[in-house]
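Folding problem:
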Amino acid sequence: MGMLQEFKEFAVKGNVIDLAVGVIIGGAFGKIVTSMVEDVIMPLVGAVFGRLDFSNLFVPLAQVPEGTARTLAAMKAAGVPVFAYGSFITVAINFAIMAFIIFIMVKQINRLKRETPPAPAAEPTTPEDIALLREIRDSLKK
C-alpha cells in the first residue's frame, strides 16, 4: 500500500476528524476565556487591589533608557529585558478559569450520563417455526 493511501486512511479516520474539530473549538473557546479574563475578571481583580493593571507588573532586568515609558510594551519595544510577573499572573488566572470551566462541563456531562438509565434489553422474539416446533414437542410429551 502506498504512503499516500495510508495517509488518506489515517486522515479520514473518525478520531482524527474529532480531534481536528476539538482543536478548532478549543482555540475559539480559548479566545473566549482570554477575553473573559482580560476584559471582565482582571479589571475587577485590579479594582479590588487598587486599580492595578497586572499586565504592566514587571521588574526591569537592565538599565532603562531615558524617556522610555514605564509600560511593558514600551520596555519590550526598547529591548529592555523584563521579569514580567504580571503577565504570568494573568496567564495563571486564565488557566485556572479554563480548568474550572472544563471541570464543571465534565461534571455535568457525567451527571447526565448517570441520570440516563440504560434501556431494558428487549426479549428476543422467537421465530415462528421454532415456536411451532416447541409447541409440537410439548404436545408430544403429554
Observations:
- The longest helix spans residues 14-48.
